[in-house]
Each structure stands twice: as C-alpha cells, then as structure tokens.
Amino acid sequence: MKRILTVSMVLAVVAALVVGCASAEPAKAAPVKPAPAAAAPVVAVDADPWTMNFDDGTAMGWAGNNSDAMVSKEKAKSGEYSLKVMSGDAGWKTAWNYKIGDKILGNVPYSYSAWIYHEKGSDVKFNITIKTSFSAYKGAVQGATVPSGVWTEIKSDSFTLSSADGQPGDIYIEPATPGVVFYIDDIAILPK
To answer: Which pLDDT score, from 0 to 100, does residue 83 have?
Structure first.
C-alpha cells in the first residue's frame, strides 16, 4: 500500500506541475531583428522633348494673354510660319501656353530656348516664365536681350522646376517692354 501511496503522490505532483505549466504564460521568444529593408526601386522619369515651330500652320496651343497671338507668314526663323504676338501698350502682355503639366515635369532639368524677332528700334529684354499649380512664377530665362530686327535665341542651358513649388501649369514668353510686336519661332524645351 505504501507503494500505491507513493506512486499516487508522485502522480499528483506531476499532474499539479502539468496543470500549473499549462495555465502559466508561455515563455516569450527573443525578438527577431527584421532583415534590412531593400532600397526603394528608382523610378526613371521619361521626359520627352517638346519642340514647336508652327510650320503646321497652327499656334500649337499658344495664345495671347492680354495680347493677340496668331500664326503668321510675315516673319519666320525657319520654315514658313512663326507666332506673331501684338502685346499692346500697358500691363502684362505675353504669349502663353497653358496646361503644360504633361509636357514639363517637376524635378527634371530642361534646357529652354526660343527664337525671338521684333522691330521696336531698340533692344528689348524677354523672359520665359513658368507658372506652377501653387501660382509661383519661376523664370527659366530672365532678361535675355533681343536686338531690333535680328532673330535672336533666348535660352537657358539648364533649369529645374522644383516640385516643392507645385506642378508646372503655364508657360509664358514675354517682353519686359510694353507695346512690342514680336515673333516667336523654333521653341525647344529639352530634358537634360
């Protein structure tokens, strides 16, 4: 009987241990460090060149902004046509192309150029300006001198519009002097 009592006690102790272990919280495994994250893939931006020479006989999306702009055969740098802009006597008078966000991308460097002709009788300074979706005006070309009676290229070898300034919205080609009749031809906006 002693043996039965001893075996019963041993079984009771084992059973108590099993029940006690089952109700206790399981042991926590040591934390596993995650594998280092792979670098985010670099997405290449496919920026296309944008050129306009008006030789299809259309304004190619350009219009007058407080001015009159139309395709003309009167003067041309190359081909048969240019864009003639009559800028009026006062205020902000310019040629513009709007909704250019699919043509010029933020954070991409571009070269900007346009050929300008006027017969004002004296030098006139011209700008190429981009307006962003945040209504910021950024000068791609500023204060380029165009002499009277000579086709002259105004250009910037590299200008990058920061996306922090908003997305490109409109582009303007504008004289600093009011009352200028001028012609634009061979516009090229090329990604670098």
So the answer is: 98
